[in-house]
Amino acid sequence: MLPERPRIEPLPAGQHGVKVTSFEKSCVDSHWHFHPEVELVWIEKGQGVLHAGRALFPYQAGQMVLAGANLPHAYGSHPGQRTGARWRVLHFRPSVWGEAFWQLPENHRIQKLITSAGRGFVFTGEVVSVCADLLRRMETRRPGNMPLALVLELLERLALEKGRYCLNPEPVSGGEAPDGDPRLGRILAWLDERAGDAELTQAEVARWIKMSPQSFCRFFRRVAGRTFHHHLNELRVARACASLLGTEKPVGEIAFEAGFNNLSNFNRRFREITGRAPREYREAGGGVRE
Hints:
Layout: E1 7-8, E2 18-25, E3 30-34, E4 38-45, E5 47-52, E6 55-60, E7 63-67, E8 73-76, E9 85-92, H1 99-102, H2 108-116, E10 121-123, H3 126-140, H4 147-160, E11 165-166, H5 182-194, H6 202-208, H7 213-224, H8 228-246, H9 251-258, H10 263-274, H11 278-283
Parallel strand pairs: 1-3
Antiparallel strand pairs: 2-9, 3-8, 4-7, 4-9, 5-6, 5-8, 7-10, 10-11
Helix pairs in contact: 2-4, 3-4, 6-7, 8-9
């Protein structure tokens, strides 16, 4: 559930530039926020929907998500998916190392990755296994495990990975649209709770936020960068993706739980957004587009 606007949350002082933290809860959870640190999240266990900038993405175990500095983001899940989660988070602030450091020729690939990470990236496959081991070594801080050197090795591996999925076409900052109007945060939070209702309409949301349907239509497109119906379909499909991978429920049941009132509409919207049919997505184990 997203609050009114992303909350800025800088790390406490004295983190020495690198911080790795492990979490284990019923689900991967974080409120709508942003921070000046670059963040890498390794999902060891759990599933749900990631909001990052303007994007909605069904996260699952075995993925890594790279969020650039000040990219607004939040992790959530449907109540039925809160069956246990475990994840590790790396935070670091590139500016602490100095501009001259990042201008070195050998750091060009990493610097380019960090700059473009304001769009948000998802990684899967072998690179996740390799980088997960580096995160474990950073967290233990045993003799010989130098966090700064390990961060550079990790970032170099991610920079060389060609199969990453880009969440936003352009970088998104917490201080810029779509987060400048507090009404958008309230609407997104409300939709998170009501998306499974197949009877939900744009007119109903407009009444709730005390706007005319025409004004609401223009407002939502301006501040969210997409139409209301496109956002709602993406949210419902993202939830369906998580259910397809995390449960053995029939496709029809998942479609209705996600908020679609007929199977043909669900199949059409699902293919439009993911490029696959629901059964193909499930059989392939999800994954992301390269």
